[in-house]
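Researcher: Structure prediction, please.
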Amino acid sequence: MSTIPRYADVCSVHPSDVSAVLHLVRELLDESSHWTRGALARNVLNDAVVPLSDLALKWSLTGAIAPALLQRLGPRAGHTEWQRLYDHAIGALWNALPSDHPRTPRQVTDLDGFNDYPRTEYCDIIELIDRALDSLG
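Model: Predicted structure follows.
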């Protein structure tokens, strides 16, 4: 059962907006050298930085959402608009997790766990994003 509210529901986030953010996440992680684990983002020295840092050169799955949201919404978007779109992007990715991956009510923690799991490879992250995009139609 999907946890993503649809446009006709009370929520004001259209699935196409979620899809656009996930496409931007996929573009940001377009090469394996742009993906990291163990931190939301890293710089050229492989030090952890915040995802919106100008020094960030690679991102985790969830870390890549912040720059994608900034690109989609712009710097003047309200907190509520940002949070709604973030929650829906997280929900779409969480729903696309492999069936054998543990799930809890803490969706971001589950996604970070998948990203940081030693057997998770770059191609697994891209496949997860693609499944989430497919589910949005």
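Model: The chain has one domain: 15-136.
Researcher: Thanks, that helps.
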